[in-house]
Design goal:
- By secondary structure, the protein is of the alpha+beta class.
- 38% of the residues lie in helices and 24% in strands.
- It has three helices and three strands; from the N terminus they run βββααα.
- The protein has a three-stranded antiparallel beta sheet with strand order 1-2-3.
- Helix 2 packs antiparallel against helix 3.
Length: 80
């Protein structure tokens, strides 16, 4: 299933990804720090959703209380 998520409190405007049988794939961020977000997308490709959440949840960007990786973790958590 393809999921679209509107992040809050970060530079990216949208996160889309596929979640099938608990595995994450095809992560795409719209907006934000393009190079870093491409890296994150490649690193989590094929990873179990629970592991992505464990690794990325609560990462803080410049005191915002969240970050694009944290928003990805929240999007996954919301859709499990």
């Amino acid at each position: 299933m393809t999921i679209n998520y509107t992040p809050r409190g970060v530079c990216s405007r949208n996160i889309s990804f596929e979640l099938e049988n608990g595995i994450i794939s095809n992560v795409k961020f719209t907006g934000g720090c393009h190079g870093n977000l491409q890296g994150i997308s490649k690193l989590v490709e094929g990873m179990p959703a629970e592991e992505v959440i464990k690794r990325l949840e609560n990462i803080n960007c410049n005191g915002k209380g969240t970050s694009c990786p944290d928003q990805l973790a929240r999007a996954i958590k919301t859709n499990l």
